[in-house]
Amino acid sequence: MDTFIKASGGVLIALVLYLVLVKQGKDISLLLTLTVCCMVTAVAIGYLKPVVSFINSLQIIGNLDDTMLIIILKAVGIGLLSEIIGLVCADAGNAALGQTLKILAGAVILWLSLPLFHNLIELVEEILVSI
């Protein structure tokens, strides 16, 4: 929690710097934004490590397939990354690029999820056969 508060304070300081720098030139303020986004993402990854280990323990308990959990984690990563990049694009004045990236991310997540859908269909077929 302490790290979150420090990161939040850093973001607020970066915001004030951004507001000062944007008057001088958009290039420097954009670099500041990218740097702070990367730093905050690194902090977020630190918070997600225990979540991944918890998911791994659930996988062992439930005897789940590795590929299914990997697909889910990749989908979450793609969603978070596209959201961050989309916001940076909007901040740089090109929201269309950010929105296009989000559409691409949605398509990639659907593509990644195809094995999950196939397994779901097989499970439904097994249940219907057993009835």
Quick one: biggest sheet?
none
Residue windows where pLDDT falls under 50 for at least 5 positions: none
Domains (count): 2
Number of helices: 5
Please provide a written account of the structure.
Helix 1 runs antiparallel to helix 2, helix 2 runs antiparallel to helix 3 and helix 3 runs antiparallel to helix 4. The protein has 5 helices and no strands. The chain folds into 2 domains: 60 residues; 67 residues. Helix content is 92%, strand content 0%.
Topology of helices and strands:
Layout: H1 2-24, H2 26-62, H3 66-91, H4 95-112, H5 114-130
Helix pairs in contact: 1-2, 2-3, 3-4
Brief overview, please?
The chain is an all-alpha fold. 92% of the residues lie in helices and 0% in strands.
Task: Name its key features.
2 domains; mainly alpha; elongated
